[in-house]
Design a protein that fits this description.
By secondary structure, the protein is α/β, with parallel strands linked by helices. Among the domains are: about 180 residues, ABC transporter transmembrane region fold, CATH 1.20.1560; about 250 residues, P-loop containing nucleotide triphosphate hydrolases (Rossmann fold). It is built from 24 helices and ten strands. A six-stranded mixed sheet has the order 6-7-8-3-9-10, sandwiched between helices. Strands 2-1-4-5 form a four-stranded antiparallel sheet, with helices on one face. This is ABC transporter ATP-binding protein. Its main location: membrane.
């Protein structure tokens, strides 16, 4: 969340009436996090258990030398000192310390090697998972979000895998062994030593409470806001200064910085005092002072011998240091827990279902075989589906009773029936929010329909293997995505075996060839290094990539939105030539660009309201006519504005 300066405390869905986190919600979140940790770490759980046993033995070895030194001191203070025994005790203490160091190094090295292999495996699993989620999942997230999953969250698990369990075992074993030994010396002084541990536990509970988690989330959000404001301010400084808006742009940046400062204050102030107390009560000096005072009182009262205070001074002082290590790792543990929860939810993201009607698809090959079906039976099933499919021309696209919504309680499309014929250009228009882009994204399976079906050539698109579907359907949307690499690399994504001539033909058709040849290294110019493309140029490069793929079905969602008028007309002409034998669906807001298409479909509130040619729809005097009048008025206003500027 984002913390405003001194905001009123408002109860939200996760809070009670008093603004505090609802206990039931907090409990459920903790349970989800525990399940996520368990499932995410399941592949390495056995190995970490063995490493934990080694750390437990190592922790015991960390205490034993002090016990031996205590015995050596008792021997030295005895009336008749056995020096040989003292030297044996010291030698054994040194050997145990060496064993402890070896065991600890072995366990930590092992856990880090396990973590390195686990991170590699997990990243591969996540990357494989992302190849199976709907493409619409990426449309809802930025590249930074995807990078956070694959890099930041996986990296955050490092503490959980390589340190958390081992640190916990060590931090529990050392105090436990120490307290058991000290209790055999004097149980009353041992109870005194428990006091700082009890106070420390209360302080840690206070620091790790749910409001503390929310303050961390608020700080992270404020930090992200500052980064975004900084990038926006730097990238747009020329524009805002040209229009005299530098003051406003700077104020946005300044507000973000002040916002982050306030979030830091809210994060730190509530825990500074508690943290100071927690570190003080387990500090060796404080523990020693407590032992000395209690020991002197005990000696004076006659219920403890002076020599029995020695073990508490030598062994008891180490209690705090082990617990401090556990406390310092608490934040890393919480961060790792949040990362585990996010990754667990990602792994549970629904995938595109594989159809059962393609003998070449994994839907048949894997689905039926996993069910115990033989290859012959799977082929028979595919043949049965093929036989049941009516004969339709290749490239014919049909939407049959298509209903879809991003949420279960809100349908964007309802009962859409339409057919796109091969070799034709069909334009889809409608008011904002009518479902045009959503309908276009259903064809390349960015999402699956909730009801009805979409078919190409009479075959349900859910029966297409992914590779075959994207060899059949090409698309260019308003949100252009280019990879880091050269212009050639970006084009070859569509057809890796394409030669230079094919690249040039596609680039010329998209009116981007001349711009590419003007770059320092032509088609080998690297985007972001020696090739900086405008929005319109990037979109034309994306169009060239789609044309190079030579798919029988094309989906263009306002594909020329960022092109200048000359390039737009050229691209439209090129598309008109290249659509022979293809099925083209064009989503457009500027109606004057689609007057010559074969058919126009008009969407309204998720339903197909009108369809026909431009002239027929104008004569019908319906929704399309109203949209056309708005388009004409906008064009006239633009013409008048340009004419006025030209006379100055």
């Amino acid at each position: 969340m984002t913390v405003e300066v001194a905001p009123p405390l408002v109860a939200d869905a996760d809070s009670g009436a008093d603004g505090k986190p609802d206990r039931t919600v907090v409990k459920e979140r903790k349970q989800r996090e525990m399940r996520a940790r368990k499932e995410i770490l399941a592949p390495v759980a056995g190995t970490l258990s063995l490493a934990s046993v080694i750390i437990a033995i190592s922790s015991v070895c960390a205490v034993v030398p002090f016990l031996l030194i205590v015995q050596a001191c008792r021997e030295l203070l005895a009336d008749a000192t056995d020096t040989d025994r003292v030297w044996r005790l010291l030698l054994i203490a040194v050997v145990v310390l060496v064993v402890r160091a070896v065991l600890q190094a072995a366990a930590l090295t092992w856990s880090h090697l396990v973590d390195a292999g686990y991170q590699l495996t997990l990243r591969r699993l996540l990357a494989d998972k992302l190849t199976r989620v709907p493409l619409g999942w990426f449309g809802e997230r930025t590249s930074s979000d995807v990078k956070k999953y694959l890099h930041d969250d996986v990296e955050a698990l490092h503490y959980l895998v390589a340190h958390a369990r081992l640190d916990f075992v060590g931090s529990v074993t050392i105090p436990l062994v120490t307290l058991i030994y000290l209790a055999t010396v004097d149980w009353r002084l041992t109870l005194v030593l428990l006091l700082p541990l009890f106070v420390y536990a209360l302080c840690m509970k206070k620091m790790l409470d749910e409001p503390g988690r929310e303050r961390i989330v608020a700080y992270n959000a404020a930090e992200q806001r500052t980064r975004e404001a900084t990038v926006e301010f730097v990238d747009g400084i020329q524009v805002v200064r040209a229009f005299g808006r530098a003051g406003k742009a700077h104020s946005v940046f300044q507000d973000a910085v002040e916002h982050q400062t306030e979030s830091v204050r809210r994060l730190k102030l509530p825990v500074v005092t508690v943290q100071s107390i927690s570190e003080t009560v387990v500090a060796p000096v404080f523990v020693m002072l407590l032992v000395v005072v209690a020991g002197l009182a005990g000696v004076g009262a006659g219920w403890i011998e002076p020599i029995d205070v020695l073990p508490f001074l030598l062994v008891g002082l180490g209690l705090g240091s082990s617990l401090l290590g556990l406390g310092y790792g608490a934040q890393a543990l919480r961060t790792a827990g949040d990362a585990a929860l996010r990754l667990h939810e990602l792994m549970r993201t629904p995938e595109l279902a594989s159809g059962a009607g393609s003998s070449a698809s994994e839907g048949v090959d894997s689905g039926h075989k996993h069910a115990g079906m033989t290859e012959g039976a799977a082929s028979s099933a595919a043949a049965a589906v093929a036989a049941a499919t009516p004969e339709v021309p290749a490239g014919t696209v049909r939407f049959e009773g298509v209903t879809f919504g991003y949420r279960a309680d809100h349908q964007v499309l309802r009962g859409v029936d339409l057919e796109l014929a091969p070799g034709t250009i069909t334009a889809l228009v409608g008011p904002s929010g009518s479902g045009k882009s959503t309908l276009a994204k259903l064809l390349p399976r960015f999402y699956d329909v909730d009801a009805g079906r979409i078919s190409i050539g009479g075959r349900d698109i859910r029966d297409f293997p992914t590779e075959e579907l994207y060899r059949t359907v090409g698309f260019v949307f308003q949100d252009v995505r280019l990879i880091r690499g050269s212009i050639r690399d970006n084009l070859l994504l569509a057809r890796p075996d394409a030669d230079g001539a094919a690249l040039e033909r596609a680039a010329r058709a998209a009116q981007i060839h001349e711009r590419i040849t003007a770059l320092p290294r032509g088609y080998d110019s690297e985007i972001g290094v020696d090739a900086t493309l405008s929005g319109g140029e990037a979109q034309r490069l994306s169009i060239a990539r789609t044309l190079l793929a030579d798919t029988p079905v094309l989906v263009l969602d306002e594909a020329t939105a960022f092109a200048d008028p000359e390039s737009e007309a050229a691209v439209q002409d090129a598309l008109a030539v290249l659509v022979a034998g293809r099925t083209v669906l064009v989503i457009a807001h500027r109606l004057h660009t689609i007057t010559d298409v074969d058919r126009i479909l008009v969407l309204e509130n998720g339903t197909l309201a009108e369809q026909g040619s431009h002239a027929d729809l104008r004569d019908a005097n319906g929704l399309y006519q109203r949209l056309w009048e708005i388009n004409e008025a906008a064009l006239h206003s633009m013409t008048a504005l340009e004419s006025g500027e030209g006379t100055r």
